[in-house]
Amino acid sequence: MPPSRTSNRKRQAGSKSASPEPPSKRRANGNSSPKKGSTQDDDDNNGYVLREFYPPEMSNKRCLEYAHDEITRPIEELQTAIEETAEARKNIKVKNSVVHWFKRDLRTQDNKSLALASEKAKDAGVPLIALFIVSPQDYQAHLTSSPRVDFELRTLQILKKDLAQLDIPLYVETVEKRKKVPSRVVELCNEWGASHVFCNIEYEVDELRREAKLTRLCAEKGIEFSAVHDTCVVPPGELASQQGKQYAVYSPWFRAWIAHLHSNPDLLEKYDSPGKNSKDSREKFKNLFDSSIPDAPANKMLNDEEKKRFHSLWPAGEHEAHDRLDKFLNQKIGHYTETRNYPAANSTALLSVHFSSGTLSARTAVRQARDANTTKKLDGGNSGITGWISEVAWRDFYKHVLVHWPYICMNKPFKPEYANIEWSYSEDNFQKWCQGQTGYPIVDAAMHQLNHMGYMHNRCRMIVASFLSKHLLIDWRKGERYFMEHLIDGDFASNNGGWGFSSSTGVDPQPYFRIFNPLMQSERFDPEGEYIRKWLPELKDVEGKAIHAPYERGAEKIAAKNNYPKPMIEHKFGRDRALSKYKEGLGRDTA
Question: What are the residues whose beta carbons fall under 8 Å from the beta carbon of 207, sequence distance 6 or more?
Answer without folding.
Answer: 103, 201
